[in-house]
């Protein structure tokens, strides 16, 4: 179960890389220097494509391919936007990059800007990450002072700068088009696609949007070579991936693993220190909360896109939430329903009304006032909400709860009959 | 717009065609298939796909697609009735109803509610959502005109998009998010704007309702009639709703007129109708004889008027702001049959401007497609309000907007702004030339009154436009009646002189009181020199207070006839309500008078009158009520005049008076109690320099005196104005307004300005 | 906060955005640092500084959790109650903080009678590795907290001097 710290360079370096000099000492900015010196933008883009890197924000779309959708000779300015909204429940991997290794993100964002010919990069960071935003502000200033940003990046003639833009508390702003709306000073509500951001994104200009981790993977790819990167993991899941693991495990935290080489069991039992003594694994939301929940029988699945899909879930953001047998799946579902109800932007009917209905139904069931027909009503509600909305938030709300009802039907029926007493939480203070 | 290639596609198993790029909803509608919608409204801009009501199946596309935002493509296979589609429609409706109050029986929208209707036709009809519904405080006033019931709102975005993108008043918004979302204005503010009432028409549920209309009627006991608005020269198409003989509501037509208003109305036009049953309404005929005043019936009044007309020679027929083509034609006919009779109209004598009118003309609908929209003089946002929305739409679509003139107008911020010195529009021609020559499809809107005062600017503008292929023009100005009466050849500006010269005997005022407007004092003096006055009028005025006979007339809401809009579009007025019992249509009164004078005119219906007018006047050749139809028909353009008139000289000393129209400042707004809260008082503005020179710092009262009248007004400094003028808002709170400073022909005039 | 103060804050970053509307979030966030929430006059100042309508600015502000249109306490404590934190005792932390501060509504929180502290629940703060976690204003999120730690934190806050700028 190899862990390999490419994105988490600071772990390799043994300490935070929040000073530019420290980052440079750890090999930072070598990739950008060599790329600017040796490759033209198209060749750079080709390397992205060759690496097979897939988006780490949740959807897993091939990054190089997405970048290649930007029109080559559009008269409009182009932009790169880094999605640092990190609000998916159970996900905190990007936070560590920004806290400990901010320059790698800046370097990746600059590489992406070079490849598509962008005028500026924006980092849209969730408002609650003010602490991390200040680290980024400082890093941007240092990078600019050192010539890594500005009118003439590293003497290459490239003009590029980065703006750190703070959100103000809204999960939906992690959805790429809602993010663009928010960055444009509007309410963060998703846009109809097409047009896709690659064609008409920020200020209706061609825009590449990528997650923090995705962009931070670019420097190692350019440094060690796309082919080397592609040789890690599988053909469909090359490279390393950050997993945030939390919930009922002894060592919650972030871990960078080579895709496919580690199973979920290894992640939970070995890397994250396993469960409390005497507790049994019950359920896991492996890719953030917006993916179908899986049970014990899926523990031996290798962690990669295709294997997880084969067991009915998604790798998603890599935010792996583990629940042992002290937890109640119905309560957990209610808590998630509450999340999605709170975060629905309200633009489309099935999501706005459906998330509301979902929470109220589950609340009634947890309170002991449920009826067996409510479970059928839930099923029917899932049908009304999924595949009918503008953005995937509503599907994200349905996925973990519908799967829970199917996988743990007995628990739901028991709670309908008896209600759900509040379980003892795990309070062991354990940080990796 | 270029014709789009038709494409062939499959619709529920049928092979059908639609122009490429048509959204599936519209393409299906072309073939009689209704796909239910809520948020889709192309007049608001690109589709947003929010409500999810219009989901359909398209073969080869993953999941269901929103038909409002999916364009037809060749060989597309579309299913609108399949099981997944039915499920989705059921689902969306059920989810809507889960939080929607079931108070249809007491809701103003009941019976004409798209949600009710679509639930009935496409939905489950019930909801299994048994949880408590969302609660909001019950109806609150967004403004004096509009009430909001937040519980009924289905968050379709229509009203908000109207405010943000169409009217761009930007005062109506969503607040909060998710299920908590509600419609609001900024805390403590009303929904303020010139077009706010459109959100009532747009709302697909009973969340936004008209305050004046609330609880007045239920849709099943009302009658609707398509008509046109007669409160300005634009000619917006309206729908009139009446109950028990009264107009109770004016709305945009369900089938808007794309060439004119596109379904939007300004708040003045929408909320002016209460004047039809206001306290000033004349309902009883009157005869004043030997110092005595008698209420009589209409027949007696007409008989008496006929006697007055036959007795004296040289009758003068003066036609006002709402006179129809039929009334104008009848006045002409009567004048021709009576010894030395004449007919005239109020307004600007501007025949010289035929040099512009003769050029290729655009309709308002053409503004959208222009790449340059230049406004030369005037202030359409206040005087021809709906034009503003067209101009904003053009701007949204990327047209360059150029606003030229001395006034500060609501369109100023929209693009290029050339602020001219008062009375010096001619200085803009160079800028305009560059812009027009640089554009492929320029549309120039020019103000009648401003250019009539600067004929040399008009001539240069005409030369410019004539030399640019593809350039078109639109005249801004006049009243609802102006273009129609002009097309009949009825002159403006002559009758006052005739009256002063005592060449008018019996004076017949048709929908007009000339003493209430520019040159009011001169008119008052002149009317002392004419014979008896016959007033055909719907509302009380100084003139009806002194007329020998008052013949109560129907308003444009209550009668038939043709009005010609400023773009030269003949459109039909239709009676939305019968009007008060003692009143008759102006045309009917004129025909009756002809019988009483022994020169009977052979018409029984306005249709016949119009047919005769079309026979007699080239501008209407070949036209009839049928050819005009529901959407109107252009009248023939005038020929260019041989030469331009000489520039008129401004009388008086001091600053040039720049009349500024005010949408809610005129008599229309004054007469409707619905508009009481939005009415604006008369005011004056000065440029910084002028104010300083006059020792006016900050706001205060000023006394203005021109050779035509005097008035005291509150004045303010507008730093954007150029010096040399005093800018006065037209309209008045009952007393004579700033119009009294103006000469009867609205020509240039100067006024002395002093602190009062 | 005045429009001039907001303008001065925006001036250095104006050039970073092709459309000035993007300045509305920075403007709102900055305007909020004065009182910790946005009163109608602050909204009007933001509107003036950005050239947008007050209704528009209010609409944007109301969309985001961390912009407040109602008065808050001097300090705002956000207790994450999403799944990972719940599994590790966030409800107990919430209760403990509310009890310490004398706030009755353990579900939603509220503001202390003396107006010093507002307690609210928050959705996943991105610190699930330190669950259960709590964020004070926009400071770095803290965790893991036992109910006792949380009570101490609440107690300390009540007595602590208020920061000069209230970033939320
Ligand atoms: C409701 C919702 C929330 C999302 N939140 C995030 C997020 O916080 N961070 C992120 O990188 N992507 C998020 N995404 C995914 C983005 O829409 C988008 O796919 C991603 O930023 C693309 O970058 P990538 O290709 O590098 O993954 C979210 C998507 C949805 C539908
Ligand atoms: S699915 Fe939900 S969050 Fe996404 S656009 Fe629709 S309402 Fe907004
Ligand atoms: S669930 Fe609390 S920080 Fe993620």
Describe the 3D structure.
The complex is a heterotrimer of chains A (432), B (756) and C (168). With 432 residues, chain A is an alpha/beta fold. Chain A is 44% helix and 12% strand. Chain A is built from 19 helices and nine strands. In chain A, the strands form two sheets. A five-stranded mixed sheet of chain A has the order 6-5-9-7-8, sandwiched between helices. In chain A, strands 3-2-1-4 form a four-stranded parallel sheet, with helices on both faces. In chain A, a hairpin with a 5-residue loop joins β5 and β6. In chain A, α15 runs antiparallel to α16. The longest helix of chain A is centred in the last third of the chain and has 18 residues, at 349-366. By secondary structure, chain B is an alpha/beta fold. Helix content of chain B is 25%, strand content 21%. Chain B is built from 23 helices and 34 strands. A seven-stranded mixed sheet of chain B has the order 15-14-25-24-23-16-17. In chain B, a hairpin with a 6-residue loop joins β8 (173-175) and β9 (182-184). In chain B, α2 packs across α3 (114-122), α7 crosses α19 (586-596) and α8 packs parallel to α19 (586-596). Chain C is of the alpha+beta class and 168 residues long. Chain C is built from seven helices and four strands. Chain C has helices at 3-10, 24-35, 40-50, 54-63, 83-87, 90-101, 147-159, and strands spanning 75-80, 110-111, 117-122, 134-136. In chain C, strands 2-3-1-4 form a four-stranded mixed sheet, covered by helices on one side. In chain C, β2 (110-111) and β3 form a beta hairpin. Chain C is elongated. Chain C starts with a helix and ends in a 9-residue tail after the last helix. The mean pLDDT of chain C is 97. The chains are: A alpha/beta (432), B alpha/beta (756), C alpha+beta (168). FE2/S2 (inorganic) cluster (FES) is lined by residues 80, 82-85, 124-128, 131, 133 of chain C. Iron/sulfur cluster binds at residues 172, 189-190, 344-348, 351-352, 389-391, 393-394 of chain A.
């Amino acid at each position: 179960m190899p862990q390999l710290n490419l994105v988490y360079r600071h772990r390799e370096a043994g300490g935070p890389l929040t000073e530019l000099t420290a980052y440079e000492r750890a090999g930072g900015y070598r990739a950008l220097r060599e790329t600017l010196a040796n490759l033209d933008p198209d060749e750079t883009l080709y390397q992205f494509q060759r690496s097979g890197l897939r988006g780490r924000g949740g959807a897993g779309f091939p990054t190089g391919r997405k970048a290649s959708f930007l029109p080559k000779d559009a008269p409009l300015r182009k932009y790169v936007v880094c999605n640092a909204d990190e609000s998916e429940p159970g996900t905190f991997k990007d936070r560590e990059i920004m806290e400990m290794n901010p320059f790698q993100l800046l370097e990746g964002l600059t590489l992406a800007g070079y490849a598509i010919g962008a005028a500026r990069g924006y980092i849209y960071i969730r408002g609650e990450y003010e602490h991390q935003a200040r680290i980024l502000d400082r890093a941007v200033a240092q990078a600019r002072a050192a010539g890594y940003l500005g009118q003439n990046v590293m003497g290459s003639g490239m003009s590029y700068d980065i703006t750190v833009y703070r959100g103000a508390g809204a999960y939906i702003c992690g959805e790429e088009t809602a993010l663009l709306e928010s960055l444009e000073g509007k309410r963060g509500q998703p846009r109809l696609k097409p047009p896709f951001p690659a064609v008409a994104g920020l200020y209706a200009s061609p825009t590449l949007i990528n997650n923090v981790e995705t962009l931070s993977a670019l420097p190692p790819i350019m440094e060690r070579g796309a082919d080397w990167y592609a040789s890690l993991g599988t053909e469909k899941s090359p490279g390393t991936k950050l997993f945030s693991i939390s919930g009922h495990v002894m060592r919650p935290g972030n871990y960078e693993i080579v895709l496919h080489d580690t199973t979920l069991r290894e992640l939970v039992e070995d890397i994250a220190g396993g469960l409390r003594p005497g507790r049994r694994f019950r359920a896991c939301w492996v890719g953030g909360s917006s993916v179908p929940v899986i049970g014990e029988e899926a523990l031996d699945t290798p962690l990669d896109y295709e294997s997880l899909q084969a067991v009915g879930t998604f790798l998603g953001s890599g935010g792996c939430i583990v629940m042992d047998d002290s937890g109640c799946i119905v309560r957990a579902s209610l808590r998630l329903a509450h999340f999605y109800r709170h975060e629905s932007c309200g633009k489309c009917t099935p999501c706005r009304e459906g998330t509301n209905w979902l929470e109220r139904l589950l609340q009634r069931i947890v309170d002991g006032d449920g009826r067996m027909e409510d479970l059928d009503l839930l099923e029917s509600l899932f049908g009304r909400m999924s595949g009918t909305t503008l953005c995937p938030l509503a599907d994200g709300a349905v996925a973990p709860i519908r799967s829970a009802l199917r996988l743990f039907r007995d628990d739901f029926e028991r709670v309908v009959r008896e209600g759900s007493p509040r379980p003892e939480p795990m309070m062991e203070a354990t940080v990796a | 717009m270029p014709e789009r290639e038709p494409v062939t596609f499959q619709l529920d198993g049928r092979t059908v065609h639609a122009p490429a790029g048509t959204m599936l909803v519209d393409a299906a509608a072309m073939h009689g298939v209704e796909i239910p919608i809520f948020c889709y409204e192309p007049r608001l801009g690109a589709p947003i796909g929010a409500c999810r009501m219009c989901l359909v199946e398209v073969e080869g596309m993953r999941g269901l697609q929103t038909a409002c935002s999916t364009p037809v493509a060749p060989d597309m296979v579309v299913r609108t009735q399949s099981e997944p589609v039915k499920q989705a429609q059921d689902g969306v409706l059920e989810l809507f109803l889960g939080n929607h109050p079931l108070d249809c029986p007491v809701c103003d929208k009941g019976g004409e509610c798209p949600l009710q209707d679509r639930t009935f036709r496409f939905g489950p009809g019930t909801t299994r959502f048994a949880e408590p519904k969302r609660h909001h405080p019950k109806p609150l006033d967004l403004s004096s005109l509009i009430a909001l019931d937040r519980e009924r709102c289905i968050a379709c975005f229509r009203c908000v998009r109207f405010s943000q993108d169409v009217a761009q008043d930007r005062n109506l918004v969503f607040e909060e998010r998710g299920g908590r979302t509600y419609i609001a204005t900024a805390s403590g503010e009303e929904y303020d704007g010139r077009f706010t009432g459109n959100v009532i028409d747009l709302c697909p549920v009973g969340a936004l309702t008209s305050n004046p209309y609330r609880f007045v009627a239920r849709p099943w006991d009302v009658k609707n009639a398509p008509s046109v608005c007669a409160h300005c020269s634009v000619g917006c198409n309206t729908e009139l709703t009446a109950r028990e003989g009264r107009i109770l509501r004016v709305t945009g037509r369900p089938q808007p007129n794309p060439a004119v208003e596109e379904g939007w109305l300004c708040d003045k036009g929408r909320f002016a109708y209460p004047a039809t049953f206001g306290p000033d309404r004349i309902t009883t005929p009157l005869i004043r004889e030997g110092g005595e005043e008698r209420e009589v019936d209409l027949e007696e009044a007409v008989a008496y008027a006929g006697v007055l007309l036959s007795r004296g020679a040289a009758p003068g027929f003066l036609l006002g702001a709402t006179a129809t083509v039929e009334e104008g034609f009848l006045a002409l006919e009567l004048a021709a049959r009576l010894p030395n009779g004449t007919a005239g109209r109020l307004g600007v004598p501007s025949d010289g401007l035929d040099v512009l009118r003769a050029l290729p003309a655009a309709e308002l609908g053409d503004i959208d497609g222009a790449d340059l929209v230049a406004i030369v003089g005037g202030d359409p946002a206040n005087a021809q309000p709906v034009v503003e929305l067209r101009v904003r739409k053009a701007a949204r679509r990327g047209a360059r907007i150029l606003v030229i003139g001395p006034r500060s107008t609501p369109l100023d911020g929209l693009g290029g702004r050339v602020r001219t010195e008062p009375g010096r529009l001619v200085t803009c021609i160079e800028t305009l030339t560059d812009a027009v020559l640089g554009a492929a499809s320029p549309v120039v809107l020019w103000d009648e009154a401003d250019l009539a005062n600067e004929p040399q600017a008009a001539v240069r503008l005409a030369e410019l436009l004539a030399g640019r292929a593809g350039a078109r023009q639109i005249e801004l100005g006049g009243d609802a009646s102006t273009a129609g009466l002009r097309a009949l050849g009825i002159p403006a500006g002559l009758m006052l002189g005739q009256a002063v010269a005592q060449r008018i005997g019996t004076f017949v005022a048709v929908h007009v009181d000339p003493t209430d407007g520019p040159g009011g004092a001169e008119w008052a003096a002149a009317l002392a020199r004419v014979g008896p006055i016959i007033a055909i009028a719907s509302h009380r005025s100084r003139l009806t207070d002194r007329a020998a006979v008052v013949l109560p007339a129907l308003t444009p809401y209550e009668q038939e006839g043709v009005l010609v809009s400023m773009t030269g579009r003949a459109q039909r007025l239709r009676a939305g309500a019968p009007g008060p019992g003692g009143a008759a249509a102006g045309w009917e009164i004129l025909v009756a008078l002809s019988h009483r004078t022994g020169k009977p005119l052979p018409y029984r219906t306005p249709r016949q009158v119009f047919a005769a007018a079309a026979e007699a006047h080239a501008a209407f050749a070949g036209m009839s009520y049928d050819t005009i139809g529901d959407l109107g028909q252009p009248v023939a353009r005038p020929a260019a005049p041989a030469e331009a008139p000489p520039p008129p000289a401004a009388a008086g000393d001091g600053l040039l008076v720049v009349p500024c129209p005010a949408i809610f400042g005129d008599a229309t707004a004054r007469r409707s109690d619905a508009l009481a809260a939005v009415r604006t008082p008369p005011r004056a503005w000065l440029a910084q320099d002028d104010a300083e020179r006059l020792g006016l710092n900050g706001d205060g009262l000023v006394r203005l005196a021109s050779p035509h009248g005097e008035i005291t007004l509150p004045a303010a400094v507008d730093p954007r104005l150029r010096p040399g003028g005093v800018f006065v808002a037209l309209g008045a709170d009952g007393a004579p307004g700033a119009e009294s400073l103006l000469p009867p022909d609205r020509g240039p005039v100067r006024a002395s300005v002093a602190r009062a | 906060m005045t429009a001039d103060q907001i303008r001065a804050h925006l001036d250095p970053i104006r050039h970073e955005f092709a459309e000035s509307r993007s300045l509305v979030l920075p403007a709102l966030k900055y305007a909020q640092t004065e009182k910790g929430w946005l009163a109608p006059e602050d909204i009007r100042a933001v509107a003036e500084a950005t050239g947008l309508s007050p209704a528009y600015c209010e609409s944007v502000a109301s969309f985001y959790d961390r912009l407040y249109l109602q008065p808050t306490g001097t300090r705002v404590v956000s207790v994450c109650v999403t799944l990972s934190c719940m599994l590790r005792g966030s409800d107990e932390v919430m209760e403990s903080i509310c009890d310490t501060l004398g706030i009755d509504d353990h579900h939603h929180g509220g503001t202390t009678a003396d107006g010093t502290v507002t307690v609210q629940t928050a959705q996943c703060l991105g610190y699930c590795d330190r669950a259960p976690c709590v964020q004070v204003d926009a400071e770095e999120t803290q965790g893991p907290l036992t109910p006792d730690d949380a009570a101490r934190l609440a107690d300390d806050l009540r007595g602590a001097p208020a920061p000069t700028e209230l970033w939320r």
